[in-house]
Amino acid sequence: MTKRVGVLISGRGSNFSALAEAARGADFPAAMAVVVTNDPSASGLARAREAGIPAVCIDHRPYGRNREAHERAMQDVLLSHGVELLCLAGYMRLLTPYLVGAWQGRMLNIHPSLLPSFPGLHTHARALVAGAKIHGCTVHLVTDIMDEGPILGQAAVPVLRGDTAETLAARVLAQEHLLYPAVLKSFLAGGAIEPPAGERLINPLPHKAAAP
To answer: Could you read off the pLDDT of 152-164 as tens digits, one per residue?
Structure first.
């Protein structure tokens, strides 16, 4: 049964585009229901609309410090579009217990490091400073503690001599675009994660399919 997926973005939405492209496949168990952003300048809004997917901006600034009120407005949009599972794809605001609780077990995030290494921001620069030999990305379930939810799948790339944060980020991003659709498909099917060609998955954990 196809699940209706909502995607939260704050910028260009390239991971959303990867999910949307995968969802066009006849055997993909998800359909993109709506894209929601907190930033009116997010270029991912145009990407979504060009793909024929509803795109809504709920600007966080009028809500001031009341993050929960902003999330409640987003939740109204998600529910009005029949969203059953939520994917964060470059959403840059910390979530409150309200939204995390509302989507417990049904909210995925992709993070640009091999968690538990380098949670938070500036992951590529931090990996280089730390002398990491491999780097990558992680898809995990979202919990109240940032970047500490159960890991569903990871993809790794080598750190090359002469890498900058920008060159490393570009190689990791290419893996993100492969990993996120693969993990979402597996998560909804409740089966093992099968890596696409060219991708290396490490430490995928067993998981159950999302609740109906």
So the answer is: 999 999 999 999 9
In this prediction the pTM is 0.90
Going through 21-141 in order, the beta strands assigned E by DSSP cover 30-37, 55-57, 85-88, 107-111, 134-141
Asked, colleague to colleague, whether 1-103 and 109-212 share their fold, the answer is yes
CATH-assigned architecture of domain 1-103: 3-Layer(aba) Sandwich (3.40)
Total residues found in the chain within this entry: 212
Write down the catalytic residue from 60, 70, 111, 124.
111
For the question of residue 70 being annotated catalytic, the response is: no
Which of 134, 151, 150, 148 is closest to 200 using CA atoms? 134
Extract the runs of DSSP E, i.e. beta strands, from 38-188. Answer: 55-57, 85-88, 107-111, 134-141, 151-158
Q: CB count, 10 Å around CB of 124?
A: 24
The domain spans of the chain are: 1-103, 109-212
- Sign for the CA dihedral angle at 180, 111, 43, 58 comes to positive
CATH architecture type of domain 109-212: 3-Layer(aba) Sandwich (3.40)
